[in-house]
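Contributing new records

If you add data, match the layout below exactly. Sequence lines come first and carry their own label; structure lines follow with theirs. Keep one chain per record. Anything else will be rejected by the validation script.
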Amino acid sequence: MHKIAIPPDAIAAVMKRRGHLHVFDWLDARRCALIVVDMQNAFVAKGMSPLEVPIAREIVPTINRLAVALRGAGGQVVWVQNLVVDDASWSVYLDRFMTPERRAAVVRVLERGSEGQALYPELVLEAADLVVEKTRYSAFLRASSNLDDMLRARGIDTVVIVGTVTNICCESSARDAMMLNYNVVFVSDGNAALTDEAHNATLATLMQICADVMSAEEVIMRLQVAPTLERR
């Protein structure tokens, strides 16, 4: 697991900005969705692809525990799958940010229906969960998926973000969700990056500008309270 170490200056900046560390004292699970980002074989399975994030395997139990808690409290679980389409719609990414050889490997391992694009088998899905494909880092972009429409149709106004990679797709999702006026919780021990440094840099940035960064246990404690409270 990542060694969580948020710089003191980031915490000091948060306290100066809003006067308290956490944004949310409780979470109304009935209006909350757990957004599980890119926990697919291509990123999680050992040795499958150049996209592997080894620490992602270590957060699987945490994600499953959060999913059980959300469902039990009346919330929604959403599994987001990265899909790479080899066309001109995102040519800047495919043409400029990787070698031709890596491009071919990424497209192959994340094409629809491939073993790499499938969700990691140790994740526990239930029939009421949603599965959404995205074609950009963030599923909240309309060019990427219809996730925003799906959440709003279900009365969701709060998202809890977990998955991989912390500082790319997960961070992009958190930023876009807040820009669309969702309450955003980013789970410190439920996201995985390639290094502790990259992971902690994202936590330090997000907690200041767009998300409440807390542990899985802190999320669950707040969900347990939410159903007993009236919506204000």
